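Session log. Operator J.P. requested a structure for one protein chain; no other inputs attached. Running the standard single-chain path with token output.
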Amino acid sequence: MTLLDGKSLSAKIEKDLAVEIQKISEKGITPGLAVILVGNDPASCAYVGMKAKACKRVGIYSVTHEMPSTITQDELLSVIDILNHNPNIDGILVQLPLPKHIDSEKILEAIDPKKDVDGFHPFNIGRLSANLDAFIPATPLGVMRLLKAYEIEVSGKDVAIVGMSNIVGKPLASLMLNAGATVSLCHILTRDVAAYTRNADIVCVGVGKVGLITADMVKQGAIVIDIGINRLDSGAIVGDVDFANVAPKTSYITPVPGGVGPMTIATLLQNTLKAAKNRSDSRKGI
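Structure written below.
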């Protein structure tokens, strides 16, 4: 059993990014990321804080717009419109979830697709589905880059993905399909999840349920990617996989924390640099 160490890989990615960002900054382009945080949800505040620190480490200019939970949808749309037209901002990220009185879909659709470094805009989702160049959601893209770093071949493999969110499950399924895998996408209405996971070469899970994937649900030698993040009453962070009992059966498995999480932030930084490079290229064409 080998641990898929996302923490070490993300550190290497950040080191390489810092060099690239230094080079593009010398040409007058400093990548800029704007994060919109609505309310004071502890988890969201923690995530935003980690992203800001990561930006500082690699040389990305970042600004966080903290909004009260009482902000109206129109007011939030107005903030996004200002950022869409700000030439110093390459990426716009709206931290989810948003308060219930705000339509998240309308907010995400309002972001300029060229600045949609989260990859949630329908334009980018469509391009991903068609296997065209696009901004891809950071978590599923981080999973693919983690697999690639460990030279794990996806083509021809049977992959079971548990969880079909627009943020993780669905885009991850598209990426796996584009890479040549045969994909089963399980969700809350799937009658027998184990029937799919037991036969899978690669099992990916991200639903937010402690101990969802047990040892009897994976075959010997399977590759298990745990995308879940759960905080126990003790304060410990665990994933959706019963790690202690599942790990001995696997050939590769991600730890939680230290697996997919760090890759999510590293990939977001890569997407922001990509947006800045696109801005630089568009200037050349003027």
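Operator note: The domain at 138-260 is CATH 3.40.50.720 (Rossmann fold).
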